Amino acid sequence: MFHLRTCAATLRPLTASQTVRTFSWNRVAASRTFGHIRCYTAPVAAEPFLSGTSSNYVEEMYYAWLENPKSVHKSWDIFFRNTNAGAPPGTAYQSPLPLSPGALFSTARAQPLVEAQTNVDKLVEDHLAVQSLIRAYQIRGHHVAQLDPLGILDADLDSSVPADIISSTDKLDLAVFQDRLRMLTVGGFYGLDESDLDKVFHLPTTTFIGGQESALPLREIIRRLEMAYCQHIGVEFMFINDLEQCQWIRQKFETPGIMQFTNEEKRTLLARLVRSTRFEEFLQRKWSSEKRFGLEGCEVLIPALKTIIDKSSENGVDYVIMGMPHRGRLNVLANVIRKELEQIFCQFDSKLEAADEGSGDVKYHLGMYHRRINRVTDRNITLSLVANPSHLEAADPVVMGKTKAEQFYCGDTEGKKVMSILLHGDAAFAGQGIVYETFHLSDLPSYTTHGTVHVVVNNQIGFTTDPRMARSSPYPTDVARVVNAPIFHVNSDDPEAVMYVCKVAAEWRNTFHKDVVVDLVCYRRNGHNEMDEPMFTQPLMYKQIRKQKPVLQKYAELLVSQGVVNQPEYEEEISKYDKICEEAFARSKDEKILHIKHWLDSPWPGFFTLDGQPRSMSCPSTGLTEDVLMHIGNVASSVPVENFTIHGGLSRILKTRGEMVKNRTVDWALAEYMAFGSLLKEGIHIRLSGQDVERGTFSHRHHVLHDQNVDKKTCIPMNHLWPNQAPYTVCNSSLSEYGVLGFELGFAMASPNALVLWEAQFGDFHNTAQCIIDQFISPGQAKWVRQNGIVLLLPHGMEGMGPEHSSARPERFLQMCNDDPDVLPDLNEANFDINQLYDCNWVVVNCSTPGNFFHVLRRQILLPFRKPLIIFTPKSLLRHPEARTSFDEMLPGTHFQRVIPEDGPAAQNPENVKRLLFCTGKVYYDLTRERKARDMVEQVAITRIEQLSPFPFDLLLQEVQKYPNAELAWCQEEHKNQGYYDYVKPRLRTTINRAKPVWYAGRDPAAAPATGNKKTHLTELQRLLDMAFDLEAFKNFS
Ligand SMILES: Cc1ncc(C[n+]2csc(CCOP(=O)(O)OP(=O)(O)O)c2C)c(N)n1
Question: Tens digit of pLDDT for each residue in 454-505?
Fold first, then answer.
């Protein structure tokens, strides 16, 4: 009896007052039992099936029916329709229909209920309409949220209101609101009618607007949706294809009253705004004509970042690595990282002399590393801001790589201790492709940092360019949607809303370990920099900005009106901070010199002496004992685990390796194995990353074995070498150069005791990572006193494969070397070679033997300092029968040969030598073959320059002096305007004090790196060989 009564009651829409009286069950538990609404009465009669436990069943069915009438059996459909339409007690139930076709229409008892049917249909449609409405707000509510503090722009570049949202942008205007409501309801999109506004509708489980209530009047539903989605926060999340994550976000933003702050929190927020605002004002007062890229218009960034850090610290994070562009950088350094203010202020003093070697960088590019106590959580926290070039967003993958490395070295496999925060400008975030590349690394096993919090300073302008001219996407943040990152847009003039989304963003990262974006919609009070006039290009916007009250003033007035602080307290807070700035300013006057090393973002404790010098200026032998070579060779040619079936072709490769080991020789792949394996033994972590590096583009490496019978079962023999070895990471990357090289550079920043290598698929592809090479790798130490030992493996060589795939562009790397072509260094200096390495910006090598490749890799770690190493690696030499090295050249006492002198017959009688050919890399094998064929082994000596930069002046001088009667010629397979010629020639001339000409034997200048025609390639090759061995070739020029 009782159940039927309640059931029938449930089936009918309630009025608002009824709801308040009756619906009070807990939405969170979402238990839908009839008992909760038992006080409600309705005229119903017993139905035999509505008793006992079956009532729960019926109830569930009812809710399913409400959502989709077709989801229940037809008989239940009729029953619910009839009951809901007010069928008299006991008459709602109709026997199931006979199964014969047409039976439905012959049921006599259905006739009296036709009228009721119309009501039922309307009810179902209304419920569905309400559900659609809720969903529409969840999907599109952000389009009408009031995000722009200036109130003149649409953050999504679209002023229209989505057709399925009742709200209007002008929602505070009641008349407009009602008008729109009428449009959408009466005969409009939802078919609801105005009288429905006071009807109560059951809320689906996909909303939390009810709080403790499970049903609400439509008017209240709309109001709450407006509150959740259309105020100062616009939540974009419905594209996320994970129900739990969507529910989590809905709960965070829909639950009534969830955005509450204590008075203490409000006061902290105000104090942080005071610091942020007064810092910029102080700089403006003291250095009004200096560029500082101030934060005015987005002062809320400082409390926003601090909230993310506080919340993350509370959740266990103790190391935050940040990357950011120019805007507000000094403020972040001062008020988030807590760099000493005097250190910042003295950067404005142009008369101070730099104490460190290197050219330094402008103040708003420098990095920082600081360990301190987080005052809110009372826990230790380390904050690091990575130094960056002007190239916007270039630091993104670097920050990620550094974060990954820090996580790796402290065993933080889930990102619970170390996290990254990336800041972006709106124009750069939308415009720079590296942002997309970086997002695509975010969930890859060997690259994930388990969630980055992205904060966009969306001042709705990029230099002088309006967003409508700067992007095609609605928001500047749309790129984040590709990885299902939720995006929280927020009006920056509402500091509490900003704090709230920052808290949620930090919690999101902590819960799901995925990326999240906070879009601070703000404005830029001044021009692009403080010297720039914004009225030239954005006159109306800037008229509005001039009228805009600063956020600090607005918030202070709010808190004073709420009685949270009083005016004197507020003023006291301001003068306290002003005093701090003044005192620091006075101290900054005492600074006599500038120390760039105070701005180091990645210190390497213990690696250098206390004053930052290398612990020695020598390098031990890079050779290994026979045992070690044998052991590594044996593992490299076997499968070190049981029950593992490898491919037949690979078995043959391993067998060949095994034979080489028996013969005490190595090819390229084995040489690399020997270098890696031995460094792992010495505790050096090795990470090799790039496209298809696991197997190797040229199928020579095979560092990851794949079981042919079990899916995804792999084995990395390199990790089975020694009992306590360091780990070996080898990872195929996403198809990105800019992003991945930046990432590896960042990884290499974290520790000097790791060999981090990035391999390009073919050398020429490095040009899509040019920014990382030009802005970070080549000048990094000079700009930021930060060393980095990253290794670039760039397959290079003219093999007749066409203009693509042939050249790793050695000329570009060589052009960026910092050694002087016209000055002969002091060759008698002790440790000349090591000093040269110490002074250079990077090392460029092209090895002609596997053994030298092995030595240079080991030297990279055995050196007492770190320099980037660029290696042009071979393709055809990987399998060239002569490109082999005996163990003898890898034993203790051996080392990397910067120059490999001629050691054949020509070297026995050097006076007889007519020509001394210098070359590098694989052309050596072409030259020796040709020399032999022409029987000129006594007349022509061939010397290989293996280390191109720093240039081995000392060894080359010896070579030249050894062959007093020889002409000198440089031979290369690359075209004359490419390759090494322009770099080598002036240096060789300096070496010999311009006593002789240095001739060129090689291809003519060309626009493309190589011909696409194989025959032309071979003809060109023959021509260069002819030139190299034609002893009359240069006679006419002398
Ligand atoms: C890759 C790159 N291209 C161009 C520039 C020149 N530039 C400096 S700031 C700027 C505008 C950046 O706008 P936005 O990202 O919105 O940041 P905002 O300056 O507005 O904070 C431009 C184009 C640059 N620094 N980097």
Answer: 999 999 999 999 999 999 999 999 999 999 999 999 999 999 999 999 999 9
Length of the chain in residues, anyone? 1038
Whether 323 and 386 have beta carbons less than 8 Å apart is answered as yes
Q: 643: Cβ–Cβ under 8 A, 6 or more apart, which residues?
A: none
For ligand 1, atom 9: residue with the closest CA = 463
The token duo for 404 is 């990954």
Q: State the pLDDT at residue 183.
A: 65
Q: Give the global pTM.
A: 0.89
Torsions phi, psi for 777 (to 5 deg): -70, -50
Q: Is 824 helix (H, G, I), strand (E, B) or coil?
A: coil
Output the pLDDT for position 831: 93
**Whole-number percent of the chain with pLDDT over 90:** 76
pLDDT band at residue 292 using 50, 70 and 90 as cut-offs: confident
- Ligand 1 mean position, distance from CA 325 (Å): 8
Alpha-carbon distance 79 to 95, whole Å? 9
Name the closest-CA residue to atom 2, ligand 1: 391
User: Cα separations (Å) of 63 from 19, 56, 218, 641?
Assistant: 17, 11, 18, 57
Which of these, 587, 583, 572, lies nearest to 274 by C-alpha position? Answer: 572
Q: Is the peptide bond before 950 cis (omega within 30 degrees of 0)?
A: yes
Q: If DSSP codes are grouped into helix, strand and coil, which group holds residue 683?
A: coil
| Pocket (CB within 6 angstroms of ligand 1) | 327, 390-392, 425-428, 457, 459, 461-463, 524, 528
Ligand 1 atom with the shortest distance to the CA of 463: 11
CB 300 within 8 A of CB 497: no
pLDDT at site 346: 86
| 822-854 burial: b if 16+ Cβ within 10 Å, else e | eeebeeeeeebbbebbbebbbbbbbbbbbbbbb
- Encode 57-106 in three state secondary structure: HHHHHHHHHHHCHHHCCHHHHHHHHHHHCCCCCCCCCCCCCCCCCCHHHH
Q: What is the separation, in whole angstroms, between the first and last Cα of the chain?
A: 118
Alpha helices in 172-242 (DSSP H): 174-185, 218-229
What is the residue with the minimal CA distance to atom 17 of ligand 1?
A: 425
| Residue 478 Cα to ligand 1 middle (Å) | 18
User: Ligand 1, closest atom to CA 528?
Assistant: 19
pLDDT confidence of residue 160: 86
pLDDT of residue 319: 97
CA distance 869 to 867: 6
Going from the C-alpha of 656 to that of each of 181, 640, 669, 670, 702, the distances in angstroms are: 79, 17, 12, 11, 13
List the beta strands (DSSP E) in 301-367: 319-323, 353-354
Distance CA 735, CA 440 (A): 10
Tell me how far the alpha carbon of residue 391 lies from the centroid of ligand 1, in angstroms: 8
In tens, the pLDDT along 533-591 reads 999 999 999 999 999 999 999 999 999 999 999 999 999 999 999 999 999 999 998 87
Section 88-117 average pLDDT: 51
